[in-house]
Design goal:
Elements: E1 2-4, E2 47-49, E3 53-62, E4 71-81, E5 99-101, E6 113-120, H1 131-135, H2 140-178, H3 205-230, H4 241-252, H5 254-267, H6 273-302, H7 310-337, H8 363-370, H9 372-390, H10 398-425, H11 432-440, H12 442-456, H13 463-484
Parallel strand pairs: 3-6
Antiparallel strand pairs: 1-6, 2-5, 3-4
Helix pairs in contact: 2-9, 2-10, 3-4, 3-5, 3-6, 3-10, 3-13, 5-6, 5-7, 6-7, 6-13, 8-11, 9-10, 9-12, 10-11, 12-13
Amino acid sequence: MCKGAAEEKNEKYVKNLKEATNAGMRGRERGAEDACQVSSEFNKSNTFYLFNHVDITITYHGESETNWGIVRLVTARLDPKSYKHSDENHLTCNGPPMEIPGEYTDKLNVTYTYSVKFEENKHIKWGSRWDYILECMSHTSIQWFSIMNSIVIAVFLSGMVAMIILRTLHKDTIRYNQMSFPVNGQKEFGWKLVHGDVFRPPRSGMLLSVFLGQGTQVLIMTFITLFLACLGFLSPANRGALMTSAILLWVLLGTSAGYVSAKMYMTFRGIKWKTNFLLTALLCPGIVFADLFIMNLILWVEGSSAAISFGTLMGILTMSFGISVPLTFLGAYIGSKKKQFRYPVCTNQVPRQIPQQTFIRKPLFGLIISDILPFGCIFIQLFCILNSIWSHQMYFMFGFLFLLFIILLITCSEAAVLLCYFHLCTEDYHWWWRGFFTSSFTAVYLFLYAVYYFFTKLQITGIANTILYFGYTMIMVLIFFLFTA
């Protein structure tokens, strides 16, 4: 049955169906990247063919094993067509295509129609209803190759860093063992000279402890979320399940953030553990919520359906102050009452003078070079993730993503240990913040890649859309900054 667009008022729609890109073709020119495949009847030069009809084929699976008397919709297919409707009162789903001459400049009235057909398929089960979408995705094979390439790069870099660490430490250990009793006036050198300053508390120790606590919370949240996704509990079929699970886990893991933050702060000989608790509970979550509120305000002004309702925002605030903050306080209280970590050596009363450092040994150069290793593990997979977010493509390879998550942790840890060791060998004992930024600086590369992706892969126009993109990107960068730290 063929129906016009004006007859759709009382029709029921099937939601959550994937959208397809509509494209037209002029004559025989085929230049569009995502143009539709059309028949040979569209062969007139300097002529436009307008797709004004859609054939909708809905496949259902009958529950023959039960007596429910219902069926389940498993697939939906939309085929664009072009028909020249001569009589609007008697619409038909056949006929010649609708041709528009290239030089046509007058007003044109277009009648849009659609037809719906239901077909039973006893082979497609409800649990495998997404397979046909995954199989027809154009970049699936490229994604597999990219993931395998990322794994090879990550394993190679991890092996290289581990080999450098083991060989360097082995040589230094042999050399120091041979010089345990200095002969002929030989003196200690390298990292052994700063043993009395290496545990000196860092500057802004409270802020560092807050970041470490929040990073622990994000790390555990990410691990559990990806693990559940690998087991199939967070299926792409259940929209919003991944984000909902991540938010709930973040709320429930406030105890870990408070404990780690307070424990590290007390290790730095801090005494304001209540201030440390407040910063741990409110600093980073407050930044994320403020950014999210601004983005949501823009969506409200634009009248977008993607805007989060006021009730949902209040629900997030209620969970934060009603559950997360009390749990953070509990963790901070336990961490502050625990026995402090005892350093293996005593700290010198007078700080040791740090020798003049060359440009290669300065912190910025080390951060730029060392963070290439962790970013090299994820940059190809990052392209797939950004495509799924901004190009409305489905992402379903959580098993490989979980493996990359583990390899990224190993690479970040090895890069931080390696760079800290090199700096200690130059008699620079300010390693606390340097070790923190060695891995977390990868977030800067993430932001730069997001900027590159915006200008080269997306066609976003308008100030509001640009602000939304970079606003959500900043949230992602901040979370990644805490996670890698």
